[in-house]
Design goal:
The chain is globular and about 55 Å long. The chain has two domains: 5-50, Ribonuclease H1, N-terminal domain (Ribonuclease HI, Chain A, 3-Layer(aba) Sandwich); 80-245, Ribonuclease H-like superfamily/Ribonuclease H (Nucleotidyltransferase, domain 5), CATH 3.30.420.10. It has 249 residues and is α+β, with helices and mostly antiparallel strands. The protein has a six-stranded mixed β-sheet with strand order 8-7-4-5-6-9. A three-stranded antiparallel β-sheet has the order 2-1-3, sandwiched between helices. 38% of the residues lie in helices and 25% in strands.
Length: 249
Amino acid sequence: MASKYYVVWAGRETGIFTSWPQTKALVDGFAGARYKSFSTEAEAKAAFSKGANLSTNSKSKVSSKKASQPNSSALPDSDVDIYTDGGCEPNPGKAGSGLALYRRGVLAELWYGLYNANGTNNTAELNALHQALLMAKTELNIGNSVHIHSDSQYSLNCITNWAYGWKAKGWKRKTAGDIANLAIIQTAHALYDDIKSQLKISHVAAHVGIEGNELADRMSIYAIDQQDTGFRQYPEPIVLADILSLRAG
């Protein structure tokens, strides 16, 4: 019995493999590679089947130019997966927000902007999450399932948890002092509360090679470099090698 089973949804060859060197050869340098290891063959077969079904008939606008890729991508579990990130140099200092949107596991759009010369990492993360919620509402309204992935525990707690207690107390904290970033928290929370029954939202680990998170990170720093106060879509075609070679946060 193999010690591990490797599922490749997107690579030079797809399927279930029991050799890491073989799997590595299939995904290294492959643009948009998607793979993951599992402890049992049953788990691998179930995951491969789910991933293959999600990818059926989907078309990527991403260039096939070979690139040095992140280690892995999270298995998509919704029609639309949105990854968000915020950056600030230094903190506080120049801030920007980024977002990567996938449709059925295929990278479809990158967004950047909301530059603030006097921002913080927290405001940048909140702004990115707010933009993701706006997009999520649009997608939900046309019948798509949506999963938002944020690497900011602070932003997620503010919007999905702490805001309920603050709101019940007239938007006041239990202890003395004002709530930081209150305006954007109130706006984003109202939007989240309206769609939460239809939405999946969760924390994703930062800088561990998850493609969507890495791309959102690059977009947040690109926003700082461009000093763009709007929120704009990165122009197509999306060449992963070029995006991943941008400065990381």
